[in-house]
Automatic annotation (TrEMBL), chains A, B:
The protein's Enzyme Commission number: 4.2.1.68
UniProt superkingdom: Bacteria
Protein name: L-fuconate dehydratase
Organism of derivation: Armatimonas rosea
Gene Ontology biological-process entries: amino acid catabolic process; carbohydrate catabolic process
Gene3D superfamilies assigned to the protein according to its UniProt record, in alphabetical order: Enolase-like C-terminal domain (3.20.20.120), Enolase-like, N-terminal domain (3.30.390.10)
Length: 403, 403
């Protein structure tokens, strides 16, 4: 199976009624800059990068600017050298200046890398999770670019982590719990929030995320209390500020939310502020900080892990440079003993595979994935979440094909 | 003077013979994504963002995506609220996702902000440095977005720094020293390097930057020795690795270069690796690390300053979100007692003004600016560097108009 052409699709899906809104992103149009690897067999590799609409066309153009070295490669040849190729694309001598390894060019690389993995799984006729479980540690290592993180994770250490005995294989048959992000968007009023919590509990979820970072913090506190009372002590409440607060504001807000026992407080402040997160996670609300959906690359995750600046690693393969960099971050997280609970810019389509890899190959706990259903009708094989549980996908590929 | 329209120019200037080459950027086409603020008086505000060619068109498009709120604003009205407007553009609810505050969208904001300052100076009929010296502390503060850095620098503290007695005004008449980056591009062979050093010394420079990060480190060491011998103990040697090394490689290289007494070692590794820089600057070669040309925003500079991770602050107003963010970083640097020695993606055109502000208003030392002459013929008012000294520009504006 040989790649003959790389095309793009600028796919945008308007939401309505406040869905998807948070403290800073008030009018999202969930969108994918989509890389499509066409092959001589008719099979297509689909790779997504997520945006909120504006500028999605810039990511599509950047995909085209980066794509040329992929054309003409046979699938096995491609994947045997994917790590090297990934580094070559990431370090494009002119486009690198636009990052490096962040922003539009990194999102473009995400889409391309994800398309390679989707194509490879389709070439093998298996779901991505199965391809990942079947790969030898050496073959998997060859797909990774570990440059700039080898002070924390050498290739030899990566191999050692990949060679551990496997565990938790029961998730393949039983599925694993999702958590519901869509009950508490910031644009929903209290009535709608209350209705949604009821629906969510009725649908089998026991863990709910609430958007916080309202202009009036007493609103946040009132709503968080409402959620905690509805789910009881046994349920899990997560609060997500989406970077709204300065460090002093974040300190005050975290202390005020702490009595409600949030499992985590997410993106309390700017993602570039390592030291602020370190302070919050070690001194203000120890072990309760989650972040990562806006960390552009493995190097930032490495620093956060080294500094103890987060407790939950919210890597996202449609923000990072694709599955390859997600796996590199997973290995780093394992090394530092922190769990990955992905952010799902992909609506869980791709991450449902990656969570199984982390659970079974790396033995990560908890096994837990965000659930956002708004784009379900637009996927060819939408993730199946039943009674609050993600079911294991069986179709070949990475479940990212759009209708 | 009212802004009637925002247009863009995608300006690219090919170099030749290895000029501009470094360890990672091997074929640069010096380029400007240029924002042009058209007004009802016929005056134009010109704002630059620098790239290496590839993707310059993406930055131009992003300028257009962000520009709309500027149209219809009168110059004084604009500048009285520039800080607020800057934050609004930086936090565009959809485009923010492409950063936040980094990459293509941040470069676009740089071009727009720089164009605003150029226009304002032209409206006053003065060079930018004079406008900056004439502004009240309060008026200057109103041009800044200090969000996410107020834990390190409150608006009140910024005002206090701006109210200090002025110093070093003699630089306005005497000029200040430049340093030469163009003697030692990585693509130049030893013969050309030796010739260039001779030319550079003959032209009055006493400080030279050498590109390092060759695939063979012995080449770096040989060339650095060649420079040190040519300039003598009194001259300043700076070594610039342009992010080539991993942390272990950087440690070895810095230790090996230290006996040659480099004034600084620049960009030893990836700009996102705060902790690596901290280790290098505090333990390996204390007080000798320079970085910043790839730091996208004030928040990253804040962390580097808080962590003691650099000794020389190489902010660049055509990488940061323009003059406004450069000034915010200058205030932070002053607060932490570290000098700003700008990187000149603008070839010094804009920074020659900003250095004077830092010297006179903030009392920063050393007063020193990189010099790269390759684009001299393309500017309407090229920076005048005579006998190694930057002369004070007298034309109205920010000296960024392109022919």
């Amino acid at each position: 199976m040989t790649i003959t052409q790389v095309s793009v699709r600028d796919a945008r899906f308007p939401l309505s009624g406040g869905a998807g809104t948070d403290s800073l992103h008030t009018n999202p149009v969930y969108s994918y800059a989509t890389a499509l690897l066409q092959t001589d067999t008719g099979a297509t590799g689909t790779g997504l990068a997520f945006t909120l609409g504006g500028g999605n066309e810039l990511v599509c153009q950047a995909i085209q600017l980066l794509a040329e070295p992929l054309v003409g490669l046979e699938t096995e040849e491609l994947m045997a050298q994917l790590g090297t190729l990934q580094r070559r694309l990431a370090d494009h001598p002119q486009l690198r200046w636009l990052g490096p390894h962040k922003g539009v060019v990194q999102l473009a690389l995400a889409a391309l890398n994800n398309a390679c993995w989707d194509l490879w799984a389709k070439a093998h006729g298996v779901p991505l999770w199965k391809l990942l479980l079947d790969l030898s540690p050496e073959a998997l290592l060859a797909t990774l670019d570990l440059s700039y993180v080898d002070d924390a994770l050498t290739p030899a250490q990566a191999l050692e982590l990949l060679r551990q005995p496997r565990s938790q294989t029961h998730f393949l048959t039983d599925g694993y719990p999702g958590y519901d992000t869509s009950a508490g968007w910031l644009g929903y009023d209290d009535t709608k929030l209350a209705e949604n919590i009821k629906k969510s509990l009725g649908a089998g979820f026991t863990a709910l995320k609430l958007k916080v970072g309202s202009d009036d913090f007493t609103r946040d506190l009132r709503r968080a209390t409402l959620v905690r009372e509805a789910i009881g002590d046994a349920g899990s409440l997560m609060c997500d500020a989406n970077q709204k607060w300065s460090l002093p504001e974040a300190e005050a807000a975290c202390r005020a939310l702490a009595p409600l026992k949030p499992l985590w407080i997410e993106e309390p402040t700017h993602p570039d502020d390592l030291l602020a997160h370190q302070r919050l996670n070690t001194e203000v609300v120890p072990g309760r900080i989650a972040a990562g959906e806006h960390f552009p690359n493995r190097i930032v995750f490495k620093n956060y892990l080294q500094a103890g600046a987060l407790a939950y690693v919210q890597a996202d393969a449609v923000r990072l440079a694709g599955v390859s960099e997600f796996l590199a971050v997973s290995l780093l997280a394992k090394k530092f003993g922190k769990p990955i609970v992905p952010h799902v810019g992909d609506m869980g389509q791709l991450h449902q595979h990656l969570v199984l890899f982390n659970a079974i190959v790396l033995g990560q706990e908890p096994v837990f994935l965000e659930h956002i259903p708004h784009l379900k009708p637009h996927f060819v094989h939408p993730a199946q979440v039943e009674n609050g549980v993600y079911k294991t996908p069986q179709e070949p590929g990475a479940s990212c094909d759009l209708r």
